[in-house]
Amino acid sequence: MSDLLDLTTLTDRIRKKMEELRVNQAQLAKLARITPGALSQILAKERTPSSEVLVKLARALNVSVDYLVGKADDTDLSDLLQNEETQLLFRDLSSLSQSDKEKIIEMMEFLKHRKK
């Protein structure tokens, strides 16, 4: 897994979320149900976490594994879901057919790439 995982990004993002949540290493280890030593080694980039440990850390920090490993920039889905426009969008999307949902996704992709 270490070939695919950028440990610097991982440790930076873990530390950032620890700061935001105001938890120390011992508290995070307890929340994630991993040993404090394992967390210390991960943060020191001496150990590559297993997939299972990544999931535990993500849950404890209330983020996605994709965020921790640098594949996504959104830190917290719950923040996104607090937005009224997002809630309205999800409500409206849920009533559409699968075909219409796919069209909406295509349109969103088009609009995203048009901005660049």
Observed structural traits:
mainly alpha; 434 Repressor (Amino-terminal Domain); 116 residues; 8 helices; single chain
Map the helices and strands.
Elements: H1 7-21, H2 25-32, H3 36-43, H4 51-61, H5 65-68, H6 77-81, H7 84-94, H8 98-115
Helix pairs in contact: 2-3, 2-4
**Helix proportion of residues, in percent?**
55-70%
**CATH top level assignment of the largest domain:** Mainly Alpha
List low-confidence stretches.
Answer: none
Number of domains: 2
Q: Please identify the oligomeric state.
A: single chain
User: What is the number of strand segments?
Assistant: 0
* Secondary structure category: mainly alpha
CATH topology of the largest domain: 434 Repressor (Amino-terminal Domain)
The Cα radius of gyration reads: 18 Å
- Rough outline: elongated
Please describe the biggest sheet, giving its number of strands, its sense, and whether it closes into a barrel: none
Identify the CATH architecture of the largest domain.
Orthogonal Bundle
Strand content: under 5%
H/E topology pattern: HHHHHHHH
Round the mean pLDDT to the nearest integer and report it.
Answer: 85
**CATH superfamily annotation of the largest domain:** lambda repressor-like DNA-binding domains
Question: Helix segment count?
Answer: 8
Distance between the termini: 32 Å
Compact description:
Helix content is 69%, strand content 0%. The protein has 116 residues and is mainly alpha-helical. It folds into two domains: 7-75, 434 Repressor (Amino-terminal Domain) (Orthogonal Bundle); 83-115.
